[in-house]
Amino acid sequence: EGQVCYSSRCPRHYPEQLGDNSGEEGLVDNGGSGRSLDEQELSRFWTQYISRDVVENVSGRERKRQQVIRDIILTECDLMQDLQYLRTHWVEPLQTGDIIPPERREDFVHQVFRNIKEISDVNSRLCELLTERQNSCSIVETIGDIFTEMAPHFHPFVQYVKHQQSDKYEIKKERSNNQSFAMFAERVERLPESRMMELSAYLNRPTERLARYPLLLEDVLNHTHEDNTDQVAIPRVLSMLRELLDKVSRASEEAENRSALLQLDRELVPRRGKELDLQLKDEQRQLVYKGLLRRRGARRGFNGNLQVFLFDHALLMVKPKVINRDEKLKVFR
User: Fold this and answer.
1) What domain range includes position 144?
2) For the residues 259-287, what does the mean pLDDT come to?
3) What is the CATH classification number for the domain harbouring 165?
4) Domain DH spans what residues (predicted)?
5) Domain stops at, among 225, 244, 267
6) Which pLDDT tens digit goes with each residue over 57-91?
7) Is residue 174 exposed (0-12), middle (13-18) or buried (19+ Cβ within 10 Å)?
8) What is the pTM of this model?
9) pLDDT at 255 over 90
10) What span, in angstroms and rounded, lies between the C-alpha atoms of 199 and 172?
11) Is the dihedral of CA 276, 281, 283, 288 positive or negative?
């Protein structure tokens, strides 16, 4: 936060400054100021963003509403910067460098970053529309129409969530097995641009943002006058967003289930002389229940507990065992 955005579509591209002779809108183009972008700062407070005359002529309720709208716009552009960071510091180097072996490179980049570009396109368009609205007037009358236009385009979030768990596993596995990637990741995560955040934190940003939209829009609605068209538009958008979040929640549960099954499949050790194929990689496979089962008659001091997994098609009992310093699950029955 507080950094200047270098995108021309972002309101933090340059700070709209106040002057003694600011016009009706209270915004002054600083194109001839001669100040470098590094010297410029844009206040996150709406009351300092526009002229004092405008501030003094609006109610406290409207000031709060404008501040929430300001926060929505700036945080949307924060997300745009984060997605740009992913593209320039992760996706592009991984695609063009020798960090990942050539035969796995394309699959790895696709698996980890999925449809992040689609989400970035939606985010950029939303940021652009919100920025244009704020730059067109000192007091933003409505934003519900913008979200009404954009909400139907949020469907890439659902597809993105479906694979988040497996993506995190791929990153962890690559760090462990590929020294070049581990060194690359450590170097990038130490850059000032990373803000001391790991790759996984940036990959979580799209879904975190989606979950924030209803809270932010409800806050706008709570400070909106009854005769404003947002009183009709925002509830409609909230309904669309909640329906989408339900889909995201279900997709997340499916992703966690699939990730657990894949992890289990990697850890299973079949009984000697027995083949084992539980088809745990099948996308339709469901883990119904898991728990502990104590074996009757187990000797004192002997850990007779078994782990039990109930699937939609089979019952599996296993016993934890360390093999070559790796924890495995030996099939009992």
Assistant:
1) 37-267
2) 76
3) 1.20.900.10
4) 64-251
5) 267
6) 778 898 899 999 999 999 999 999 999 999 999 99
7) buried
8) 0.72
9) no
10) 11
11) positive
Q: Contact 167/112 with Cβ under 8 angstroms?
A: yes
**Is there a single domain that holds both residue 235 and residue 157?**
yes
Beta strand 287-294 with 268-269 is unpaired
Higher pLDDT, 32 or 262: 262
Residue 24's pLDDT band, with cuts at 50, 70 and 90, is: very low
| Burial bucket for residue 157 (CB in 10 Å: 0-12, 13-18, 19+) | buried
Among candidate residues 296, 322, 320, 289, the one with its CA nearest the CA of residue 306: 320
Q: What is the mean pLDDT of the chain?
A: 80
322: β partners: 327
Calpha distance 286→265 (Å, rounded): 13
Q: Are residues 164 and 283 located together in one domain of the fold?
A: no
Question: Tell me: the pLDDT tens digits for 185-207?
Answer: 999 999 999 999 999 999 999 99
Using an 8 Å Cβ cutoff, are 282 and 259 in contact? no
Do 63 and 106 belong together in one domain? yes
Q: Which residue has the tokens 């070049």?
A: 180
Cβ atoms of residues 16 and 10 within 8 Å: no
> 88 versus 291: which is more confidently predicted?
88
3-state secondary structure of 31: coil
* Two tokens, residue 316: 């599996």
State in Å, rounded, how far the first CA of the chain is from the last one: 55
- Compute the half-sphere exposure of residue 108: CA atoms within 13 Å on the CB side of its CA: 24
- Report the alpha-carbon distance of residue 189 to residue 195 in Å, rounded: 8
Strand (E) or helix (H) holding 308: strand 305-311
Written as one letter, the residue type at 14 is: Y
Tokens of 238: 């909230």
**Residues 253, 133: one domain?**
yes
pLDDT digits (tens, 9 = 90+) for 142-173: 999 999 999 999 999 988 888 777 778 889 88
Q: How many domains does the chain have?
A: 2
Residue 14 inside a domain? The answer is no
